[in-house]
Amino acid sequence: MLSSMLEALIFDVDGTLADTERDGHRPAFNAAFAEAGLPWHWDARLYGELLEVTGGKERIRFFCERHAPEFLRQGDAEARIREIHAAKTRHYVALCAEGIPLRPGVERLLREAKAAGLRLAIATTTTPENISALLAPDLLALFEKVGAGDTVPNKKPAPDIYLWVLAQLGLPARACLAIEDSANGLRASRGAGLATVITRTPYTDDHDFSGAVAILPELGEVGLPQLRHWHSLAYGSDKKV
Ligand code: XBP
Ligand code: MG
Known about the structure:
This protein is an alpha/beta fold and about 240 residues long. It has helices at about 20-35, 45-50, 55-65, 70, 75-100, 105-115, 130-135, 135-140, 160-170, 185-190, 225-235, and strands spanning about 10, 120-125, 145, 175-180, 195-200, 215. Strand 4 (about 175-180), helix 10 (about 185-190) and strand 5 (about 195-200) form a beta-alpha-beta unit. Helix 1 packs across helix 5, helix 3 (about 55-65) packs across helix 5 and helix 5 (about 75-100) runs parallel beside helix 7 (about 130-135). The longest helix is centred in the middle third of the chain and has 22 residues, at about 75-100. It is globular and about 55 Å long. The chain starts with 7 loop residues before the first strand and ends in a 6-residue tail after the last helix. The relative contact order is 0.19. It binds xylulose-1,5-bisphosphate (XBP) and magnesium ion. Xylulose-1,5-bisphosphate binds near residues 12, 14, 130, 149 and 156.
């Protein structure tokens, strides 16, 4: 019997839990390029363009296709992209150690949801070690399942990472609610059949969020009941079916 009761929240990471693209990933990419002696610098505008592609390795390759095609003509281009990305992850983890704050209301929502008996999970495109670098151990421990990075072959906007997390939770999509920040993320969560709440960021303000159950500037200090309201909006009232 399928329940329409809300049982789990599935969170995106970058842009949703924290504004990491601005404060972490972009400077980390630039530090890795400098370390590799490459004349590349991704400013905020260019980075906004490159965010069309999820996954750091995939984003570097996308940048090369558009702005440095000669780099891809080298025989060891893929190996060099992996090396640059590993350096970038090292720089990102170091930036997290300096402290990247969570977005408003995120910590409270995580703790309130857990205390209310909801199961929590992560579905992200980012590299796994970036999550443990961003979240304090007691917050990371709230998440029952973490689907990240190369866990699945096809990254967002493909639904793969959300389908993987649903399988790990052993729940149908209709028992869950996804929280995302980007059009790619929304396409991924909707592709997995998940009702989705959007919290916009400056990088995603102009994205098309058609199909979201709510589009918010941030989670703010909204109490948990709102999430049940959005879930019942998406799936109908909390009746057993
Ligand atoms: C955001 C992404 C990631 C990060 C960079 O992931 O697309 O690629 O921008 O992290 P999400 P990596 O919004 O799904 O959390 O370099 O580790 O990929
Ligand atoms: Mg995101």
